[in-house]
Amino acid sequence: MGDILRDTPVEGVCRLTLNRPDALNSLTFAMYAELVDHLEAIRYDHDVRTVILTGAGRAFCAGHDIRGAGKPDWVAEGLGKAQFQQRVMAKLGQIPVLMHALPQPVICAVNGVTAGAGYPIALAADMTIAARSAKFVNAFHNAGTGHEMGFSYMLPRLVGMQRAAELMLTSRAVMAEEAAQIGMILRCVDEEALMDEALKLAEAVMVNSPIGLAVTKGSMWLNVDAPSLEAAIEMENRAIFMSQSTADSAEKRKAFIEKRRPDFTGQ
């Protein structure tokens, strides 16, 4: 068993838990690779309707483990520093890309501190909720820059350029309540309610058809950079045609009229 636990708290929900609580869930090279493997497997798992990503213990993720990260086994021995770092960051960069690429919505439940690499992972979720004690820390400058893993792409789109500039250039920490106020996360909740709220959000998502969710999520992320309103509408129209031609979409409409929970079959 690795340092990322996978379980099913309720039917349809895959929960991934970063599980190095004694190290505040700081990430090892093995964990980066393991998380990539989990995300790639989930992408094609029909039984998974929604993903929840969280951390064990009193932190979500304290970033890269600078003392005990081990070695990246996907990088060949004997490379120069630049070549080594390029290959390391290529693997790390897969994580937010895969989170966006999943057809299933991803909910991040942030408990406690999230710093360094944990920060962009939290922002890459489709929806992020946090305990009131949660703290978002830009620790990237400790490694030489103020960004990595798509942080400079995601943060301005969430909070705007001026606020992103402040947070990226000063490294000021952001508490959960402020993060919710500025739109960096969906909302903050009481500590003891965090997982219940994440599961409620997952349940609210899963009343919609899997293909409807997949094409809606895909349109949402692609249309962030759509070149025009017309292009965005064309993307939506194609998604609508695809979704409405399925039996699951018909089942969703029927269940809504009959005021019952839909029974999706993947057809």
TrEMBL record:
Record SUPFAM superfamilies: ClpP/crotonase
InterPro entries according to UniProt: ClpP/crotonase-like_dom_sf, Enoyl-CoA_hydra/iso, Enoyl-CoA_hydra_C
Top-level taxon in the UniProt lineage: Bacteria
GO molecular function, one term: catalytic activity
Database matches in CDD domains: crotonase-like (cd06558)
PANTHER family named in the record: EG:BACN32G11.4 PROTEIN, ENOYL-COA HYDRATASE
Family: Belongs to the enoyl-CoA hydratase/isomerase family.
Stated name of the protein: Enoyl-CoA hydratase
Source organism (scientific name): Sphingobium yanoikuyae
